[in-house]
Amino acid sequence: MSFQAGQGEVTLPFLGWGTAFLDYDNDCWKDLIVASGHVYPAVDKYQWGTSYRQQPLLFRNLGTGRFERVSAAPGSGLAVAIPGRGLAVGDLDGDGLLDVVINNIDSAPTVLRNVAKPSGHWIELRLVGDPASKSPRDAIGAIAYLTTGKVCQRSDVVSGGSYASQNDMRLHFGLGGATRIDKLEVKWPDGLKETVNISRVDTVVTVVEGKGLARK
Prior knowledge:
Helix content: under 10%
Radius of gyration: 19 Å
Largest sheet: 4 strands, antiparallel
Number of strands: 15
Structural class: mainly beta
Number of helices: 0
Strand content: 35-45%
Strand order of the largest sheet: 1-2-3-4
Order of helices and strands: EEEEEEEEEEEEEEE
Distance between the termini: 44 Å
């Protein structure tokens, strides 16, 4: 599917490790980011069309089943060649844009702060399972379905991410131009289905199983 999606040829010189789907511009479509790095430093001595340190790759979802590579602006995090080995995603600074941390072998991690402009609206969910039920408190296995207009998105609470990495377990939804959430349904790990009303966007909310939104 990678060639059909427009990611095949461009990734041939790269050796991917960390991979994550994320809506970096909050337009309702999940994009793709990849952390890469070769396993043999000696490749730099030969003209093999690759290198030991490699740039992170960010692909924008066009909404047609195809992706396009986001060009690396000079001096940006996407322009830096690093020996990537793992990748985790989360909103580190609370601005509603997903950031990325890349673990590098034999060197310090790389933090990619998301400064994408313009960006759409967003909502972030922290799900808490009911300890009295069969759901774990961290809600691993829960599925959230969020509807805005004709768009229905799904996001799952999972343990682990890409290679040796763990993403933020809060569920992030880009909303595009939508300013209201028409429906949020959560299917908890114990099988309970719960509909939750959310009146605001551009915020982080906590949903407790069987109790709806948690009060601050």
